[in-house]
Amino acid sequence: MRALSFLSPLLLLSAVLSARAAEPATLGLQVRASIPEGDLRDALGGFQYPGVGLSLVVEQDFELPVRVRLALGADRWPRKSGTLLATDARAYAYHLTLEGVYLLRPDEGDAAVVLGPYLVAGLSACAWNLEYGGSAGTFRALHAAGSFGFGWRVTRSLDVELKAFAGPMDAG
Question: Running along the chain, 172 residues long, what does each successive block of 10 average in pLDDT?
């Protein structure tokens, strides 16, 4: 039920943006694999399998060569024997992200259909949930994070990105 309350504002924003014909806007789904690092990797007992994530994304043409992206998403890292009390641990992250997309070849037409390379950078509000020892304990935290990456628009409906997403996580 909470997911629906988070998705409602984003869906409303996407409907408004898609109704504006003068400026190209796109609504999409972002699927990702992620490798935990630092304290998150330690809490999960090291790296065994990548985490998976899914986001609903609205991208709006700002002014060539810049586009603005708003994403609401969630990530999950798999259960593995962790270092917290020598028990199993599982982590989830929910985030709202605002990013700028800088097209590296903007002179090739409409921003929504420009194919090729781009840079992306942004800020996120993250809610973390780390469960360990079954129902024995849960750690929750809110924090800000940043992202930076490189992408390639392969087709109008497919982008490939390599992105770092970093922010503080309580080592305790």
Answer: 50 50 72 83 74 92 88 85 57 92 77 81 90 70 91 88 81 51
Centre a 10 Å sphere on the Cβ of residue 166 and count the other Cβ atoms it contains: 12
Question: φ, ψ for residue 93 (rounded to 5)?
Answer: -135, 135
Q: What 3-state DSSP class applies to 26? A: strand
Instruction: Cite the beta strand spans of 2-136 per DSSP E.
Output: 25-34, 51-63, 66-81, 88-103, 116-132
Around Cβ 17, how many Cβ atoms within 10 Å? 19
Q: Work out the burial of residue 42: count CB atoms within 10 Å of its CB; fewer than 13 is exposed, 13-18 middle, 19 or more buried.
A: middle
Candidates 168, 65, 76; CA nearest to 131 is 76
Spatial neighbors of 86 by CB under 8 A, at least 6 apart, are none
The 10 Å Cβ neighbour count of residue 21 is 7
**What is the per-residue pLDDT for 9?**
53
Cβ proximity of 96 and 72 under 8 Å: yes
